[in-house]
Amino acid sequence: MRRLRFAIFLALGCGWSAGGTAQNVPPPPNEIDLKLFDKAEVDRSKGCSLSLWQANRDPENDRFAFIFTERFRGTAHQREAAQIKIGTSIIPLQRVGTGGRSEGYDVYPFQLYKMPDEQGYVVLDLKLEPEQGEAVEISSGKLMVTMLGKLAFRASVKGGVGCSGPPLPGPSAAPVATAPAPAPRGGPQGAPPNVAGGPLTAGTMAPGATAGGTLSASSQTRPPATAQPARPAVSGPDMFERYSVRQQQVPARFLQGINQRFGCTVPAQRNGITGFQMSEESAIWQIPCDRFGQNQTSVFALVYLPAPDQQYEILETPSPRGLDRKLDSGVLMSAQWDVRSRTVTSLYPASDRQDCGIFERHAVTREGKLALVEFREKTRCDGVAGRPDQWPLVFGRR
Fold first, then answer.
1. I need a labelling partner for 211 at 20 to 30 A (CA). Which of 145, 157, 159, 363 fits?
2. Is there a contact between 302 and 312 (Cβ–Cβ < 8 Å)?
3. Per-residue pLDDT tens for 343-384?
4. Are both 295 and 150 inside the same structural domain?
5. What is the Cα–Cα distance from 72 to 17, expressed in whole angstroms?
6. What residues have CB less than 8 Å from 3, skipping those under 6 apart?
7. Interacting residues of 151 by C-beta distance below 8 A, sequence separation 6+
8. What's the domain count of the chain?
9. What is the pLDDT of residues 18-66, one digit of tens each?
10. Is position 275 within any domain?
């Protein structure tokens, strides 16, 4: 019954649409005054959460980007009330329906939330990527808000689900302190202007397009029955595959440049270079650099195959802000590839027993770069080796 109600609600919402107004102009009475959260209102530095931001905003650099938040508590990821912002009020939301297949954290591609006293509903239509480490990326999606007597509002979103540090203790006993939801008003259901909330800019969005510099509404929402199959964990060329790079394919000048920058040794490179095809003319090369007992460091470069010594780019591996990853950016130790998910892990042991150290997981982006998706560190060398991918989580991409 819950899923049926959810599907019916989506179908009813598909016929409503909206157009655009100037920035900071109060919306007409029949529009939903949806606004973005100030960055200071959304704390992702502790615990686990689902966060959505406007698709054309950068949540790391823009003051106003987040449009939806939902925090989890405990190891079972029990939900606190989700939140959106309408006018000056933060509205609590209770999830009442789901659809599709979860990729982790009990988050689904289609989710239905209701406002207090059923004054309105929020529908999430999300594209979930397979879980990597302890993070689930939301590569694209739509958020639609409906309230009785008001025009439906829809926005293009991106986001993610994950944790920064250990889960918050237990489920919250007290409800989230919020202002009451605005009372619904009547009005004609025609094609209204876009909502301009706080710093939002105005504009129109064609059906199926992403919002470019705007938070805008649209008229198409995909029902669960037409959900597309999940894509690979990291979007990349179909040609991605592992191969051994022949010695004659590697110009001496290329290796000299790598060795001069990173202090790599020629003996460590006798086992050769491993390539991962990215296109007909480009590949990622994993170049052995140095050996420390059973551990070997590698450097990764995106190369132009017709002229590797003239056109190549070292793939940087920056550490999370405020953390020391021990190795130079661009160097990974004991690198292990998962070709299916296009990810590479690295283990930097801090003792011979490998019972402490740093574990990292990077993903290959569409552009052929390495993006950090997981950073774990065990600082206490206690003689218990365990699994590095279960060490304390310090950073997870959201």
1. 363
2. yes
3. 899 999 988 888 899 999 998 887 888 988 889 999 889 888
4. no
5. 33
6. 97, 98, 99, 224
7. 16, 18, 30, 31, 32, 187, 189, 190, 192, 217
8. 2
9. 333 334 556 667 889 999 999 888 887 777 889 999 999 988 888 999 9
10. yes
